[in-house]
Design goal:
The complex is a heterodimer.
Chain A lengths: L1 H39 L15 H11 L10 H17 L5 E7 L5 E5 L6 H22 L3 H32 L4 H6 L12 H14 L11 H4 L9 H26 L8 H8 L1 H27 L7 H29 L2 H31 L1
Antiparallel strand pairs in A: 1-2
Chain B lengths: L3 H26 L6 H4 L19 H26 L2 H6 L3 H26 L25 H6 L1
Helix pairs in contact in B: 3-5
The chains are: A mainly alpha, B mainly alpha.
GO molecular function (chain A): NADH dehydrogenase activity; oxidoreductase activity, acting on NAD(P)H, quinone or similar compound as acceptor; quinone binding
EC number (chain A): 7.1.1.-
Enzyme class (chain A): translocase
Amino acid sequence: MEIISTLFIAKAVFIVAVFAVTLGVAAYSTYFERKVAAFMQDRVGPDRAGPFGILQPLADAVKMFMKEDFIPTNSNKWLFIAGPCLSMLTALMTSAVVPFGDKLEIGGGATIDLQGIDVNIGILWVFGIVSLGVYGILIGGWASNNKYSLIGAIRAASQNISYELAMGMSIIAILMLSGSLSTKTIVEAQQNGHWNILYQPLGFLIFLVCAFAECNRTPFDLPECETELIGGYHTEYSSMKLGFYLFAEYINMFISGAVMATLYFGGYDYLGNSWVAEHWGENVATLIGVGALIGKALFFVFVFMWVRWTLPRFRYDQLMNLGWTILIPLAMFNVVLTGFSIISGWLMIVSWVGVALLLVAIIVYDSVTYKKKKVAVN
Amino acid sequence: MVSDFGYILLFIITAVTFCAVALGGAFMLRPNRPNIEKLSTYESGEAPDGNASVRFNIRFYIIALLFVLFDVELVFLFPWATVFGNKILIEETDGVWGWFALSEMFIFIGILTLGLAYAWVKGYLDWARPVVKNSNYQSKIPASAYEKINQKY
C-alpha cells in the first residue's frame, strides 16, 4: 500500500511536471519564434520586457487575460467556447504517451517510469488524439458564423485528414521494425545508437512534411492564411480563446517534435549513455536522457521556425497534390521497401539503396517527361 | 493499483482543470463592455453580407469520403505491421512467414493503390488551378528563363 501511494503521488507530480514543461516550452516558443524571425530578417525582435525581452511571454499572457472577449451575436455560443477548449485539450493530451525518460528511482526502492502511461496502444493514441484535433478547429470555425472562419475551418479539416493518411503509413513502417505499438518499446529498440532514422530515411521525411501540415504551419498554413482569409478559423476569436488556439499550435509543435524524436531519433537515447550510468549513477543518466529528448524536440521546434522563414506558402491545389499524389504513393513505397529490408535482413543497406533507386527513377522520369513537354510546346 | 487508463483520466482531469482555470481567470479579470459593432460578424469592416454558410467546393466532400476509405484500410494495416517482423513466427516457419505476410500485404496495398489510381484518373484529386492572364509588361528577364518552372508546375 505504501509503495502504491508513493507511486501514485510520484505519477501525479510527473503529470503536473509534463504539463508545466509543455506549457513552458510552448510559451517560450512564441518568444523564440519572434527572435528567430528577427534574426533571419536582420531585426532585433522583442527586447523591451526584461533583459533581451525574455519576459515577453509573460506580458503576452497578461494581455490574453486582460483583453475584452466578445462572442458574436450570430455565433453558436457554446460551440464557440468549446472549439478552442477542445483544441487545447487534444494538444495537451498527446504528451501522455511520450516516453520522456527511462526509469527513475525514488525513495523506498520504488521506481517510476518517466512516461505518462506505457500502454500497448501508445502510437495509436497519438494518432487518434491528433485526428481529434480537427474537431476543435472545425467546431470553432463553424460556430463563429463567419464566411472566412468557415472556409478556414474546412480547409484545415481537409488538409489534416489528407496528410494523416501519409503520416499513418510512415508510422506503419516504424511498427514493422519494432513489432509493437508501445512507444516505450519503440524507444528501447533504438538504444545505443540504433536510431530508426538510419533505417527509415524516407519515412522520416514523409513524417516531417506531414507534421508541418498537421500543425498548420508554413508552408501549409492555408487555414489561417491572412492574405485570403483574414485570420482563418480564428477570425472572430479574441482574448483567452484566441490564446488557446495559438497556444495549441505551439504545444502541437513541441509534441510533434517529441514524437519525431521518439520514433526516429532514439527518444531519450544519447551518446555515452552507459558510461554516465556507470560512473554517476542511473538516476543522473536518466535525467540527462530527459534533457536529450527535450533538446531533440526543441531542435525540431527550431526547424519549424526555420522553414517558416524559408519557404513560401503553398497554393491549395499544390497542397492537395502533394498530399494525395506524392506523399501517399511514397509512403506506400516506403512500407513495401521496409518489408523487403526486414525479410532480407540487411536493414540499412536495402532501405538506403531503395531511396537511392527512387531518386534515380524520379530524376530519369523528370528528365524524360520534361523533354517530351518541350517538344510538345515547340 | 491505478491502471494505465486511470492515469489517462488523471491527464484529462489536469488538462480540463487547466482550461477551466485559464478561461475562468480571464473571465474574472477582463472588462466586458459589448456594443452592437463589436458583436457583429467581422467582414473586413464592411456590413456583413448574406448568410455565413457559404457554398464551398464539392471536392472537400470527396476528399472526406476518400479519407474514410483509406483510413479504414490504414487501421487494418496496424495489426499486420505489429506481427510482420515477429521473430517467433518467422523461426517456426523457416522464414516463410515473412514472405507470406509480405505477399498478403502486396495484394492489400495493391487494391489500395488501385483505388487511389482510380480516383486520380477520374480527376477527383485535381483542383482548379488559377488561370494566369497575359500582360503587356516587358521584363528584362527573358520569358525563357521561367520556362522550366512553368512547365513543371
